[in-house]
Task: structure prediction
Amino acid sequence: MCLRKGVTVEHILSCAKGGFPSIRHNEIRDVSTQLMSEVCYNVSIEPDLQPITGEPSSGAASAITTDGARLDITANGFWGSRFEKTYFDVQVFNPYAPSNRMSSLSATYRKHENIKKRAYEQRVREVEHSSFTPIVLSLTGGLGNAAFTCYKRLASLLSVASIPSPPTVNTRPTIQGAGVEAILSVKRDQHYNTTMSWLRCWLPFSLLRSSIVCIRGARSSRGHLLNWTCCHGPSSPRIKSAHSHLCTLNF
Result:
């Protein structure tokens, strides 16, 4: 557990000690990347953005303009042809944090999506000549509007629901549009509703596992054991209550 005195459940779910929020983020990023690699081209994790060399900046003050900036995922052919690149950035926020709990959940999703867009969208569009999609989720399993649309698109690419009529023996399917789905959806002999149901199960349960780890996990640094006598042990009634509450949330 976190060694801070008077620790609350809200703090536990957001505390960076032990690296649990990063594990939660990386789980969503890695599995999303793996699924995109089945239906997209040139998929990579944490690609470096090109440095800004004299381009006029007309974006928001919060825009990221430093060298070495990176986004979580890049993929070609997600929203268009194989040459159209899209950058994705994942964020999993805690709806119980003090900065979020005073707003409605829908407003919180919009806030975090807009933060991501102000930070990266103009740079991706004008320097990388690509599109940008923020993937914002809450740790209770919900999706922002952009993330929901993104995973619907991913499910359609992975499924066979939108396959056109099969080509003849001597004809190759076209590469653009439904042709991509026709070529690569053969890997998963599933209809769209089956694939989307799987995604809707995988996302909440993945977030649930990581949230339980945040509550129950030992926040020791690598190579150093945690001294349980100086913090709340895992059998603390308060931690047991938080664990039970989290497991009964409506995911």
